[in-house]
Fold this sequence. Notes:
Layout: E1 32-35, E2 38-41, H1 42-49, H2 53-65, H3 71-74, H4 76-87, H5 91-100, H6 107-122, H7 126-134, H8 137-146, H9 149-152, E3 156-157, E4 160-161, H10 162-169, H11 175-189, H12 198-203, H13 210-219, H14 222-227, H15 238-259, E5 328-335, H16 339-351, E6 354-360, H17 363-373, E7 377-381, H18 390-400, E8 405-410, H19 415-422, E9 428-431, H20 436-444
Parallel strand pairs: 5-6, 5-7, 7-8, 8-9
Antiparallel strand pairs: 1-2, 3-4
Helix pairs in contact: 2-4, 2-6, 4-7, 5-8, 10-11, 11-13, 17-18
Amino acid sequence: MFCKKCGVEIDxxxxxxKVCGTAQKQIASPTENKIFGSTFQSSELYALETSxxxxxxxxxxxxxxxxxxxxxxxxxxxxxxxxxxxLFISPMDLIDSMHRGDAILxxxxxxxxxxFIKNDCMSxxxxxxxxxxxxxxxxxxxxxxxADPRDLxxxxxxxxxxxxxxxxxxxxxxxxxxxxxxxxxxxxxxYDNNGMPALFLIYGLGDLRIHDIDAIAEVFSKSxxxxxxxxxxxxxxxxxxFNEISRSINYMAVLEKTMASALPADMRDGEEPDDKPRTxxxxxxxxxxxxxVKLLSGKKSExxxxxxxxxxxxxxxxxxxxxxxxxxxxxxxxxxxxxxxQHLLERxxxxxxxxxxYLADSGEQAMKLNLEVKADVFFIDINVPGKFNxxxxxxxxxxxxxxxxxxxxxxxxxxxxxxxxxxxxxxGYIFKPFTATKIRSALHLFx
Length: 447
């Protein structure tokens, strides 16, 4: 969370901001607080919050030297959070400090904490799981930076590993560091109960940036990526997916830059794109956009066809074009949080003479708006933010309006996402970057 006064990022459970000192939460007046399943006196919590870092480190040193049980062990995740929130402003501050070799923690303390985590992992990993599931972003960042990844790989809970869990929920700003630290072997050869390597889980997050692609390129060679697949050996390899995501990221960066000036003034957010187009964000010696054909396993890509077979098994008619009629009454809703993509897709639809177009930037907004407009066709970004992602929103819409046509938009094609999307029985599935021909092909399916 962020300080309500100065806006600096602080731990979710912090009581005071370490920068401005503003109280974030009222210290409970009742005699006891429940934290991580332990019974904790408010006075004890306050004492920890205001303790010097050396005193907090002593708690872990004691746990390393002798067995600690009961509440004395159960409060250690809380002490971990307090310690790193007191020392660092944000996850990036922690990482930068450790890279610089600053003596904020000290080498001896880092080694001691690493040994504590190793001992915990060997005895079941209760502490690690508590930090992953209930800790703040800075707590998890500290776990990633300090723990030996091979120790984290020992822990398996609910059909997945601590490596997979951290890859999925860590702050996206430190994801490149996670990729570099966890390394080639753990990211490619450690599978969850669905047979997914951790790298493929990262591929499917939907919010990858150039910095993530750079980190993957540093860790893996082309031949390394080519060998990575899901555990049963089916589907595309890691190199094919890497190339597709690289191309999509670069395309979107160029698109946002070139389209910004064309947007109406009230649609501009006044910010520069987070990821600038680059030509060095692929594997060494390669260009991101367009990717060389040889990188796609010798298969010629078909950018002008909608990718339906994986979802519905439908084929797209091979016709040169559609005979459009002016003033179509078909109601279309675009569910996409990027104003650039909204504007681009809306423009293409209007060029095809579809005039009844509605816009929503979240799944919740789409569901609410559809109660009124009852749209016929939905273009839905699978990874639209909010309580309901694109697949959840599509399912809810289909449950109330069974004749609605769903066309998913996505920048990735991982097996898990495809499986979940297929269950909604969509009409189509378009990969970003899309083209006018892809949109026309999708609309052709029900015209």
